Amino acid sequence: xxxxxxxxxxxxxxxxxxxxxxxxxxxxxxxxxxxxxxxxxxxxxxxxxxxxxxxxxxxxxxxxxxxxxxxxxxxxxxxxxxxxxxxxxxxxxxxxxxxxxxxxxxxxxxxxxxxxxxxxxxxxxxxxxxxxxxxxxxxxxxxxxxxxxxxxxxxxxxxxxxxxxxxxxxxxxxxxxxxxxxxxxxxxxxxxxxxxxxxxxxxxxxxxxxxxxxxxxxxxxxxxxxxxxxxxxxxxxxxxxxxxxxxxxxxxxxxxxxxxxxxxxxxxxxxxxxxxxxxxxxxxxxxxxxxxxxxxxxxxxxxxxxxxxxxxxxxxxx
Length: 318
Known about the structure:
Helix content: 25-40%
Distance between the termini: 31 Å
Order of helices and strands: EEEHEHEHEHHEHEHEEEHHEHH
CATH class: Alpha Beta
CATH superfamily: NADP-dependent oxidoreductase domain
Shape: globular
Strand content: 15-25%
CATH topology: TIM Barrel
Number of domains: 1
CATH architecture: Alpha-Beta Barrel
Structural class: alpha/beta
Number of strands: 12
């Protein structure tokens, strides 16, 4: 499971699982991760043979995620050879500015925090917060990032966001080399199925983030809680509980099945798992080592899913 995969046509290679740093600094009471824990996790990732990619963003923790990664890079002497560090260019989180000028500023902020001269992989992040016309304008964010790639300020350019119809439109421009979709291809939500096919068929590297749906699919029996960024609908929880029971019959944890569901998909280059501590990394490595009986996937395929509970239930993708 540790063999690296080609990231589309970028010339880069990535492990089947990547680490996400989106919750290192959450500003929620009791949820913040101590800086020491983040540095220890980054150091462990740099030497891991199973998880060789760290995903961050300009706006994660309002820059704190990148700042901590920068500290870890400085202590390590830079990005390890063969390790992929990727970040995202973001709008101004106070004013909402999503202009081309803001993208350049976002890149400069990331470079400063990370202590790098260039960024190997950058994604246009959450363009659902602007319009298509504004995004594709001559002075818009896409043009600015394409120019930054031409200048060598960034190595490769990707697209990352939520709504699958929107992401498909960006994929079809031919300007992007990789895709990140989140919470939309899990055991209980297949919203991104057609998007995965589209992106992989066009030669993009594909990252599938949040295979546990924000935590719902990490344990069984399933407890009422959140899926993605909202309260999980009863029908979705029922499907998760039914799948969890099937997993138990096969002697496999729901978490292991949720992770392998994504990792085993040939269209997905790497699965991004949110990690906060070294313990999370070790738990992920253990889940990767689980041997999944082939019959489990056949049994899961028989579980009916309520598409109205999916993230983009109104998607027009076939």
